[in-house]
Amino acid sequence: MERSIRTGLVELPELAEPRIAAIRGPVLLGAFVSGTCSWLAVRYLERYFRTLLPFAAYCIIAGTLSIIRFM
C-alpha cells in the first residue's frame, strides 16, 4: 500500500500542469469517490468476514468450478 501512495504522490504535480486544467475537477472527484467507495467496501467486508470461513468456502467452490470449466 505504501508503494501505491508514493507513486500517486509522485504523479500528483502533473495535475497542476495547464494542459490538465480541463479535467482536473473530474479527476479529483473520481479520486475522492473511488477512495470513499474503497473505504466503505473494506469496512463492510471486515464486518461480513468476521471469520474467514465464508471466504474459504467461496475459494473452494470457485476454484473447483474453474478447474472443471477449464479442463
Quaternary organisation:
single chain
Total DSSP helices:
3
Strand pairing plus helix content: what structural class? Answer: mainly alpha
Low-confidence stretches: none
Number of strands: 0
Main sheet makeup: none
Task: Give the integer mean of the pLDDT values.
Answer: 86
Q: Which strand-content bin applies to the residues? A: under 5%
Question: How far is it from the N-terminal to the C-terminal residue, by CA?
Answer: 35 Å
Global Rg: 19 Å
The ordered string of helix (H) and strand (E) elements is: HHH
Helix content: over 70%
Global outline: elongated
Please give the structural blueprint.
Elements: H1 2-11, H2 24-48, H3 53-69
Gist?
By secondary structure, this protein is mostly helical.
Structure description:
- The protein is built from 3 helices and no strands.
- It is 73% helix and 0% strand.
- By secondary structure, it is mainly alpha-helical.
- The chain is elongated and about 55 Å long.
Task: For this entry, give a set of tags.
single chain, mainly alpha, elongated
